[in-house]
Amino acid sequence: YESGSATNYISRNKARKKLSLSLADFRRLCILKGIYPHEPKHKKKVNKGSTAQRTFYLLKDIRFLMHEPIVGKFREYKIFVRKLRKAYGKAEWGTAEKLRGNKPGYKLDHIIKERYPTFIDALRDVDDALSMCFLFSTFPRTGKCHVQTIELCRRLSVEWMNYIITLRSLRKVFLSIKGIYYQAEVLGQTITWLVPYQFAHDHPTDVDYRVMATFTELYTTLLGFINFRLYQTLNLVYPPKLDGKGEGESRAESEEDYAMDSECYMEKLSALSASLVRVVSTAEAEEAELDHFPAEGEDGEKLAERLKARQDQDRQEKLFEGLKFFLNREVPRESLAFVLRCFGAQVSWDKSLCIGSTYDVTDETITHHVVDRPSLEKQYINRYYVQPQWVYDCVNARMLLPVEDYFVGVTLPPHLSPFVEEKEGDYVPPEKLKLLALQKGERPEQEEEEEEEDNDDSEEEEDEDQSHDEDELKGMEEKQALGKASSVKVTPGEAKPVNRQRAEQEAKAEEKRLAVMMMKKRDKYLYDKIMFGKKRSVREANKMSAKRKALDEASKANKKKKLKK
Amino acid sequence: MAAARRHKRVAASQPGFLRLKPDLDHSASRIGHKKRVNKNKKKNWNKYSDIQDVEEFLEDVRLQERATGGLLSDKSDDGLFFVDVGEQKVRPDPGAVEKKGKGLKPLRIDLILQPDSQVPPPKELSSNLLIHVCILAYQQPNARKLRLMAQKAEKLAAMGVLPRRERLLQRRRMPGSKKPVANNDPARAFYDLWRPDRPDTADPYYLEQTKRRLVKKGVTSFLTPPTPTPCWQRPEKLNVKPSLLPAVEVAAPGASYNPDFTSHQALLLEAHETEVAKLKAEEKLARQLAVRKEDLATEESVFREQVEGLIEEEEEKLEAEEDDEGTAVGPTAQTEKKTEKQRKREKADRVKELQKKAERKAIDSRQQLFQLRTISAELRRREQQTSVRRTRRKDQQEREKVQPRRLGKLRFQAPDLDVQLSDELSGSLRTLKPEGSILKDRFKSLQKRNLIEPRERAKFKRKFKVKYVEKREFREIQ
């Protein structure tokens, strides 16, 4: 085979032999260098006539791998392991100790630089890295992977969270049954990551831990460099340092009970309650207002739009500014602290719950107390007791929602996914409609609804009233008809007010109808198909809302029954 | 005894010469046979002159140079002798500060292994060349080459470039030096990886040719053809992701911990449908693998099998029939030769046939002039067909970019949808039971995005059978 696709590909085993690596090492190398298997178009041709299923790589990629210095390191490591095994086998503990001291290591810096030539490239690929780091940082330290890796992952994820808090760029949060999805906007890139709930681990057996550990190795390096750069862009000190102001206060006596001195710093950082030290003082940086220049080819409207969006965003960033939260011990502390601090709130918790609490429950200035239990015995009168979902829903709605629906012991409204973008004609759940109305600033409508829900009896009365009205109208019409028949009269003509808008619309509709009539058969077919699809979606949405209505009514009826009982 | 005399003379010419080995007196053994030869022939000079002593002397000189690095007589007494005062304890001076460069001193073992001899290694002579090169004592083999090399080394040393051997020695890590930090060290430091380096002022062509910089792609003019990417440079294709899928796929709105009724129902329906499809596939397989009723043995078939071969008549009849058929169908070879007449007629037929065909063709082509409309319609139809096919193919390609490819023996198996049934849903965050594993989700996502090939966990295979032995003590208790 001297030409054709057979020469462009190489099977995995051959590639492995070419590099003289073991399969595990080869796999690791491929993951680190970002070389993935490739499915050829004509497998039989590539496979030299055989139809056996094989994993293929591009030959050029493998040739490129041969120039990687890490390959040599892998070999060195192999030799190291062999020597160590031998020393242990011969019970030469001194030799083994010496060997352990000279364990060969390697760096991935150059690979990161090579794979992501610019910083933005790296930032685009950070979703994976974040998800993996957050996942690994919650692993139990039971030997499924190195404890050091877990610690590094924890450090990097805490750094990331602190950065997002300082930048205030969190946009969406979604609590799913799997974990919590966050979305943030960093330097114009939308970044989504998934954080598991705490203590939610069963170790699945069908996952290759070695592969995952290799990915994590790469991603921790990547995330570290990205964090460094991001901290630099915000003029923050890296590695992050807590603001010195609170240092004196936070040295409480409980601290010594909580963590060792070596761990204390990291723990305090991960508490997310204090702000970070900047290289340049914040006052200077914030005073400088951005100038607005219209981009080329942009007219005034667009500029205004952009300005408005900017203002909205600013408002959203200061959503919880000035509010003081206290987290009860049963709520997910880290997630809530992260979200609240991202929008400028002050957060604290019980001293015994975690390090870094800044004020007590008894503080009179607390405005919101986040509680997740059916009832609370001792309540302060000057604060709202809300369930944690309120915080997340507020963030997704970009406004402070009414607290009444989220009081302690109240059945919560559904938590809607902020990642769904409804198109025209899709089914929109009524809760979302309510929310949209709220966002537009229509408050009374909701109150009406509440009223409706409160007194169902009045609703029935209304229904009766309506039917009564209809009867009257019918009578009038009959009378009119009779009157017209009896008396024939010529009355002076009245200038009919021409509804110009309506006329315009009609003309447009007519035009459209004619255009449809004039369509070619082929286009007509396509047009019909599109229209049918639209109608179908509308029909489905209607069906869904009808279903929902039926369900609501049924639940209402149930409630009534219960009340009657 | 001329030889002995000469020996003495040579030795005498070396002031204070010391022998390494104790001198052996060879002269005694050689006294007995003395032969008279004419010394007017050059041949006899070579043959009968005794140069043993000179040889021995030179051998000794060489030995001394080789072993002790110079003539013993040249060395000072301090170098040769020392005063034995017994074992001396070296007491470390507490006040003295350790020398800075001490850590960098090469190991003693390396120093010992350094070649001590002043005699350069002899030039290797290939054995097939039957030339005996006579090298005199003062001559050095490869002298010119060595001299040049030494000059070059000196020049390099002046520039600060050490020979490889030295470099290796110095590169050896000292116990005091820093160990390389492990990749997963939680305290490892990071730096600005993407900091713009200082711009190169050198000629770019020079840098590219000396591989100091990668060859830039895309700056090819029409004068210089595009150069293929060298194999030590990352192929451009590798920067394209193998799948268009996003890294983190957000769960459906029905998977919220406190979902909206309709979206939850939609998710349940989806899960239900996948489950039904799976069941259907299983049932289909079971149906196809089930034993057919026709294949089951009935009493009749069993009986027929038992009497197989016992009834002869039917068989013979069948065989006879088969024979008849065979003779009727079989091809017969034509053995008769064609006559001249037959040949001529066949040829004429062939020509006629060809003519007919040509005529037909001409008529058809003429006729096509009147079919222009149909032909153009046909062409249009075909064009339309191709365009439709093209768009379809494009769509298919687009769809395939999102689909997981088949990268190995196994196909990608989509993970089960994570759902909570209506009664499993808990209204509050406190009582929420997380569903599914994120680790598995991430792993499957990697597979789905074609980053790794789907694999099965290697099964544990026992090489030898396990042998169970009852222990004696245990048996006794029983």
Automatic annotation (TrEMBL), chain A:
<dbReference type="Pfam" id="PF06732">
    <property type="entry name" value="Pescadillo_N"/>
</dbReference>
<dbReference type="GO" id="GO:0003723">
    <property type="term" value="F:RNA binding"/>
</dbReference>
<keyword id="KW-0690">Ribosome biogenesis</keyword>
<keyword id="KW-0175">Coiled coil</keyword>
<keyword id="KW-0539">Nucleus</keyword>
<feature type="domain" description="BRCT">
    <location>
        <begin position="315"/>
        <end position="408"/>
    </location>
</feature>
<protein>
    <recommendedName>
        <fullName>BRCT domain-containing protein</fullName>
    </recommendedName>
</protein>
<feature type="region of interest" description="Disordered">
    <location>
        <begin position="438"/>
        <end position="509"/>
    </location>
</feature>
<dbReference type="GO" id="GO:0000463">
    <property type="term" value="P:maturation of LSU-rRNA from tricistronic rRNA transcript (SSU-rRNA, 5.8S rRNA, LSU-rRNA)"/>
</dbReference>
<dbReference type="InterPro" id="IPR001357">
    <property type="entry name" value="BRCT_dom"/>
</dbReference>
<feature type="compositionally biased region" description="Basic and acidic residues">
    <location>
        <begin position="471"/>
        <end position="481"/>
    </location>
</feature>
<comment type="subunit">
    <text>Component of the PeBoW complex, composed of BOP1, PES1 and WDR12. The complex is held together by BOP1, which interacts with PES1 via its N-terminal domain and with WDR12 via a high-affinity interaction between the seven-bladed beta-propeller domains of the 2 proteins. The PeBoW complex associates with the 66S pre-ribosome. The PeBoW complex also associates with DDX27, PES1 interacts directly with DDX27. Interacts with IRS1 and UBTF. May interact with MAP1B.</text>
</comment>
<dbReference type="InterPro" id="IPR010613">
    <property type="entry name" value="PES"/>
</dbReference>
<feature type="region of interest" description="Disordered">
    <location>
        <begin position="539"/>
        <end position="565"/>
    </location>
</feature>
<keyword id="KW-0698">rRNA processing</keyword>
<feature type="compositionally biased region" description="Acidic residues">
    <location>
        <begin position="445"/>
        <end position="470"/>
    </location>
</feature>
<dbReference type="InterPro" id="IPR036420">
    <property type="entry name" value="BRCT_dom_sf"/>
</dbReference>
<dbReference type="Pfam" id="PF16589">
    <property type="entry name" value="BRCT_2"/>
</dbReference>
<dbReference type="GO" id="GO:0070545">
    <property type="term" value="C:PeBoW complex"/>
</dbReference>
UniProtKB/TrEMBL annotation, chain B:
<dbReference type="GO" id="GO:0008097">
    <property type="term" value="F:5S rRNA binding"/>
</dbReference>
<feature type="region of interest" description="Disordered">
    <location>
        <begin position="21"/>
        <end position="40"/>
    </location>
</feature>
<feature type="region of interest" description="Disordered">
    <location>
        <begin position="381"/>
        <end position="407"/>
    </location>
</feature>
<feature type="compositionally biased region" description="Basic and acidic residues">
    <location>
        <begin position="394"/>
        <end position="403"/>
    </location>
</feature>
<feature type="region of interest" description="Disordered">
    <location>
        <begin position="315"/>
        <end position="362"/>
    </location>
</feature>
<dbReference type="GO" id="GO:0000027">
    <property type="term" value="P:ribosomal large subunit assembly"/>
</dbReference>
<dbReference type="Pfam" id="PF07767">
    <property type="entry name" value="Nop53"/>
</dbReference>
<feature type="compositionally biased region" description="Acidic residues">
    <location>
        <begin position="315"/>
        <end position="326"/>
    </location>
</feature>
<keyword id="KW-0539">Nucleus</keyword>
<dbReference type="InterPro" id="IPR011687">
    <property type="entry name" value="Nop53/GLTSCR2"/>
</dbReference>
<feature type="compositionally biased region" description="Basic residues">
    <location>
        <begin position="31"/>
        <end position="40"/>
    </location>
</feature>
<comment type="function">
    <text>May play a role in ribosome biogenesis.</text>
</comment>
<comment type="similarity">
    <text>Belongs to the NOP53 family.</text>
</comment>
<dbReference type="GO" id="GO:0006364">
    <property type="term" value="P:rRNA processing"/>
</dbReference>
<dbReference type="GO" id="GO:0005730">
    <property type="term" value="C:nucleolus"/>
</dbReference>
<keyword id="KW-0690">Ribosome biogenesis</keyword>
<dbReference type="GO" id="GO:0005654">
    <property type="term" value="C:nucleoplasm"/>
</dbReference>
<feature type="compositionally biased region" description="Basic and acidic residues">
    <location>
        <begin position="346"/>
        <end position="362"/>
    </location>
</feature>
<protein>
    <recommendedName>
        <fullName>Ribosome biogenesis protein NOP53</fullName>
    </recommendedName>
</protein>
